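#struct-queue
[09:14] JT: dropping the first one here, sequence first, then the structure tokens:
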Amino acid sequence: VFSHHALRRLQERIRELQEENSKQQKLNKEWRERRKQLIREKREMTKTIHMTVFF
């Protein structure tokens, strides 16, 4: 059994954790997109290097 005050604190903490989780998910998505972009750029650079070496 929780007191009214303890229940309010618990609910607030749950909200804080939900917000933090949401922010982390957004950051993770941004980092995944950045990683994909870097992989694409690396692939293109590798192609460019190979083309200049062979010509």
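[09:21] JT: and here's the second one, same format:
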Amino acid sequence: MRQKIVAGNWKMHKNAEETEDLLNDLIDKLPSDAEVHIIVAPTFVNLASAVEHLEFTNINVAAQNMHQAEGGAFTGEISADMLKSVGVNTVILGHSERRAYFHENNSLLKSKVDTALKHELVVIFCFGEELKDRQSENHFNLVENQLKDSLFHLEEKDWANIILA
């Protein structure tokens, strides 16, 4: 049976104090033996504190994005190694906002997926179409290409660390 997953992407919301308050609410209100895998994705500046805050819970912390390079002169970016160093074990890649606003394409996402898996991160891979694609009846081709171009090169063992969203 497939595992049930509930993931919350906080996008660019919640400062440090608000993050702590929300995490406390989640800890208080969610059962500790839930059959649902719970993942929260706070802002980058709150990742380390969220990991520490949730250490003895069944709630995992994900990053909202990650650069494909191991390191270098990429202002404002974050590497897989940096995520791992603060205890993050999951990363969201391919979000529609990243595709639309930052022009992330299938080739770039393939590279990001490869880097994440190399660093033993679980990847929440987002895919899907926009309304204009559905209206033009191109949505099936678009989704097929997103998956083929970004993920179909993976080996069978890699799929254990891919969550499709």
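[09:30] RK: nice, looked through the second one.
[09:31] RK: Residues 37 and 52 are 18 Å apart (CA to CA).
[09:31] JT: good to know. The longest strand covers residues 4-9.
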